[in-house]
């Protein structure tokens, strides 16, 4: 049975110049019974999250969010830290962190000694790349749809080390076979030039457009060629099933705050024991770093000694920051276990519902807009929680074929969605057209996506009338 708590009053004061605006939201909170669960798409489940009633959260994939029970766990960790700072940070926190590591390791079927936490996937990618010692002739392979911050990381590495890079170009939609063949050609090209393909970076699911990548095949291809595989699974854990023991990548980083319902920032960094010797430093370098022997006096470490591996200890304390998002992860895992859908529960229910919703939402919105979903002939791009829908806009008429103007129109649409429609939908100009990325989630229903389709239709009509150019 569901039970009802007293009304919760949230008072948020916002100051604009000399004016003070007071917003009052009143939520009738429904608490869930772990024995009966919460069905996907139900009001009971939606009410566990902290949304403004006037806001539709249609872009979960960018920054994620978390439910009230996880917020409570977050605040409890923070309160424990503030109650006894030294006792908590030096002694209690490492134990709580181990519990969180055990929880996430179990979820992805990885040995607990291979998993640590970093704030986000970008930090994880940087941590790996900046630990690799590159020599003349070493090549970093990456794909055209790499996340922008990671491509800039590669650029900086190539500016400051002996490494060079090779981007594998293509335009979606492409088949999985075509993408893997492009990778093989790139490897052959590098080797034919007498160079060494040292490491390859690729996604599990591309950010924009939001499409699934045949990462399993690419990990295998890297293994066959002796290339280090660095998997950017920013959209990974909580989104698609993971078995890291079976996949066996050389490095993998996955945001937990996007799809697993942990607070920001929290990401899993997986490094199998065979490669942990390569990751000598965190980012930034902190007390866990072990310098090469020089014969000098050891550098003082003010933290308590530990019997854990050097790799685990290295990432346990990386400067003084709020690590409560990490220790909140077990609460997120427990919350997810109570979610149900059509007789399924936990991860199976969540992933089944969201992927089914993404496919249906894509069809519904394309019907409203009379356009199409971005998909390949095999139908593999949409095997995730995203659907990419083309907007009914003429790029030649509106942007004259200029990418810069097209991007400005995309920015105008994004701003209008936030300012006038109280929502946000990610948008990209790709392959000569504007596409929106629909992001399915357990607290959304098809009614939300029908509203989204009609809203996008209205905004596109405004763009066609020239509003975005004013």
The radius of gyration computed from the alpha-carbon positions, rounded to a whole number of angstroms, is 24 Å
Oligomer: single chain
**Count of helical stretches:** 17
Largest sheet: 7 strands, mixed
**Strands ordered across the widest β-sheet:** 6-12-11-10-9-7-8
CATH C-level class of the largest domain: Alpha Beta
| Helix-and-strand structural type | alpha/beta
| Outline type | globular
Runs with pLDDT <50, length 5+? 1-29
What is the CATH architecture descriptor of the largest domain? 3-Layer(aba) Sandwich
- Mean of residue pLDDT? 93
Estimate percent helicity.
40-55%
Give the CATH superfamily of the largest domain: Type I PLP-dependent aspartate aminotransferase-like (Major domain)
Number of strands: 17
Approximate strand percentage: 15-25%
Structure characterization notes:
The structure is a single chain. The chain is an alpha/beta fold and 470 residues long. The protein is globular, with a radius of gyration of 24 Å. It is 41% helix and 18% strand. α8 links the parallel β9 and β10. α3 runs antiparallel to α4 and α16 crosses α17. It has two domains: 162 residues, Aspartate Aminotransferase, domain 1 (Alpha-Beta Complex); 238 residues, Aspartate Aminotransferase, domain 2 (3-Layer(aba) Sandwich), CATH 3.40.640.10. It has a seven-stranded mixed beta sheet, sandwiched between helices. Strands 5-13-14 form a three-stranded mixed beta sheet. Strands 15-17-16 form a three-stranded antiparallel beta sheet.
